[in-house]
């Protein structure tokens, strides 16, 4: 595993190759094997980074990358258009990653417990935190963020990863998660509040 | 604007999704209210930390290797199975799948730990290994060493029999969903 310096956010796959994404998707749906191979090349990184962020290790990220493409290959006839290809692909990836995550964690009580944090509790929390911006300084390492992310319920984790980490829009996140934008907003709010709480507590201990 | 109103708009404020008027109202309140300002500072900090987080890059070879494995598990596996079915009408589906996957994957593959454990002379671990492991043929050539330098007689037999394939050090993976094959590393 080489340098971790680069901030690998989601970026639209390169378009400098001969065929555009819409052309490739069209070819893929019509059993053009070379189109599929090219789509794998263009999207494998996006899936790997997302899976790594969810699962935190190379082996699991690798499994998600492989399994996602194997599954979308088998289900290629279900793809209706280009827009649906991207969200379908990312949906397969996130669903499989969530399954793996649940397997790795076992059936945890902690997440359920955190899930039930009400709005009131959050406000109470914010009152307790006197100078949060001072506490949440650069000492919060990426590893601590990872640990904090682990405490979120899977769907909240994915939502905040797609939106705040990868910089996708709420509409895109909603398409991938098969939910409304309102749900994206509410999951995002809960996830941010929990992360803030966990990270702040971690530092003050 | 009350504290309650402000806090309810903070997410959208941070995401820059408020109307200019609403944003101005939030800004005014934050300027006047220390408590809400602290809350805003913490939330904005969390979002900015998340935006900076990065993933360790796998070795560059990983991308072409995983593409090849995906190829072997999808595009290449179907015609191979068909050919085999046409050739020999008997034989279990699992065996067909296995030979198809192993054949397709012979252009690919992996497993550092295997190589490392053999270099260390740790034979016991591999002796118990039942699952097939993969290795890339072009990488094997690049290694410039006969397999006997790395592998036990038993594992060499398994390579000959198609239940063991070996590969690039970068390509350590888990292939739990290959039909009839579970890989260890
Ligand atoms: Zn206030």
Automatic annotation (TrEMBL), chain A:
UniProt xrefs under Pfam families: Sigma70_r2, Sigma70_r4_2
One of the protein's GO biological processes: DNA-templated transcription initiation
Alphabetized SUPFAM superfamilies for the sequence: Sigma2 domain of RNA polymerase sigma factors (SSF88946), Sigma3 and sigma4 domains of RNA polymerase sigma factors (SSF88659)
Keywords: DNA-binding, Sigma factor, Transcription, Transcription regulation
All residue ranges annotated as the RNA polymerase sigma factor 70 region 4 type domain in the record: 143-195
The keyword Transcription regulation is assigned to this record: yes
Gene Ontology terms for molecular function: DNA binding; sigma factor activity
Segments forming domain RNA polymerase sigma-70 region: 39-105
PANTHER family: RNA POLYMERASE ECF-TYPE SIGMA FACTO, RNA POLYMERASE SIGMA FACTOR HI_1459-RELATED
Stored NCBIfam families: sigma70-ECF
Family: Belongs to the sigma-70 factor family. ECF subfamily.
Name of the protein in question: RNA polymerase sigma factor
UniProtKB/TrEMBL annotation, chain B:
Subcellular localization, as worded in the UniProt entry: Membrane
Pfam families membership: zf-HC2
GO molecular function: sigma factor antagonist activity
UniProt domain Putative zinc-finger: residue ranges: 3-37
UniProt entry tagged with the keyword NADP: no
Keywords of the record: Membrane, Transmembrane, Transmembrane helix
Membrane-topology annotation of the record: Single-pass membrane protein
Residue stretches spanning the membrane: none
Domain of life of the native organism: Bacteria
InterPro entries: Anti-sigma-K/W_factor, Anti_sigma_zinc_sf, Znf_put
Record GO biological process: regulation of translation
Database matches in Gene3D superfamilies: Anti-sigma factor, zinc-finger domain
A Gene Ontology cellular-component term: membrane
Chief localization: membrane
PANTHER family found in the cross-reference section: ANTI-SIGMA-K FACTOR RSKA
UniProt-recorded name of the protein: Putative zinc-finger domain-containing protein
Organism annotation: candidate division GN15 bacterium
